[in-house]
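S2.1 Query sequence (CCA tRNA nucleotidyltransferase)
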Amino acid sequence: MPGPTHPPTDELLAAAARRLAPVTGLLTELGERFGAAGHELALVGGPVRDAVLGRRSMDLDLTTDARPEQTERLLRGWGDALWDVGRAFGTIGARKDGWQVEITTYRKDAYDRTTRKPEVSYGDRLEDDLVRRDFTVNAMALRLPDLTFVDPHDGLGDLARGLLRTPGTPAESFGDDPLRMMRAARFVSQLGLALDPEVEAAMRERAGSLEIISAERIRDELVKLMLTPDPRPGLEVLTDTGLADVMLPELSGMRRTVDEHNRHKDVYEHSLTVLAQAIDLELPAPEPGRGTAAAEPGAAAPADGGPVIRPDLVLRLAALLHDIGKPATRRFEPDGGVSFHHHELVGARMATKRLKALRFDKDTTKAVSRLIELHLRFHGYGDGEWTDSAVRRYVTDAGPLLSRLHLLTRADCTTRNIRKAGRLRRSYDGLEARIERLQAEEELAAIRPELDGNEIVEVLGIRPGPVLGRAYKHLLAVRLDEGMIGREEATLRLKQWWVTQPESTEQQHQPD
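Output structure tokens follow.
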């Protein structure tokens, strides 16, 4: 079924002209420069599509019949900066007046169908270049300098219909480059388009071919999808077509596992709902020159890691994956219920394994896993019976992730029971208020023992090493349990602990 209603084609072209107005002079100048040298030049792909949709892009992709060395000569002296890192693929880049242009020679790539790497060959016609592109909405162009609209595959009509199609047959397109199937999922979310039935059928049939794509490229496409305003439609495409079975099988696994209530939602639907609610809690990025966005309910103080600004990849990945441990921990209870004991610990390990396989960086992997591990901690808070010690440990264990943990915990409430939802919300409001009070009193974000390492060494007469580490952890536990007790009392507690340690006895029996 087509996606949301889109404007007619004439309105789309008018929107494109308005959006391109600020850069029309630059494009005309560049087109005349290439034309004078006997070469064609056209704005192509994403910038044309985005202009048609009324979106603005500071990056301008162009294509030409000029070879890379000819393009480089024409850009030299025109742009403020020049680079050729894409020369192997026929691309030369330049920057002028704040705009970035990348000009690629017409391509006629050939794929061997066993890897994604094409054999690059140059073409001589714009139409040949457009037919090799992934989707019709990306196969539109504006010839320069006269801005003639070129659309041999009716990409404009597809935008008006809200449909995602390929210029050639979907089987050939995805056979050439299986990563295009993941891009299709992203465009469903990013552009609000629906898959053409033939495109969807080809994706189902060829989902397994995604295995030849490198983990890094799959990761990059997943990240782009997760950072769209509404990732859910694209994630549903990945699951429905079987692509998730290849690159994120845990997502498919949740679809077959009902939650502990065994009523109104399965774990998959719950996870997508939590993701959507987490995104709603992110703070909008501040407008240029406006400073930091104002705080909103659910946002933590800057000392706890700062407000969570949209889009936040760590929060979104944690929200999507927070319950991936449930399928592995599901147990059917004698009373007919379903339990998932310790699924947060199992899920944290599973998330670490999956994110490592997708070549995510260590910091992202560690942060997502830690949030999953902690996402149930609040549910032991009940009606606020936690001691100050428990609150301190909650803050300390979350560390700089506390802001995100606040949002993940709030987003994880998907109950339809209005009374229960209100109780959970008020309970977490109370926890955040207690955290703010203790932060103001004790600087929880930077909590430390009241004696530092050097002072511990001096009091105990020991050298730096494992014993010092244990002593430090003991004083930290005292600090967390009892708050600030003063340096004199902390010294006394340290000495009392020391006499119970075997190293203290050994030290006493050493000869002078």
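The longest helix spans residues 9-36. The two ends are 88 Å apart (CA to CA).
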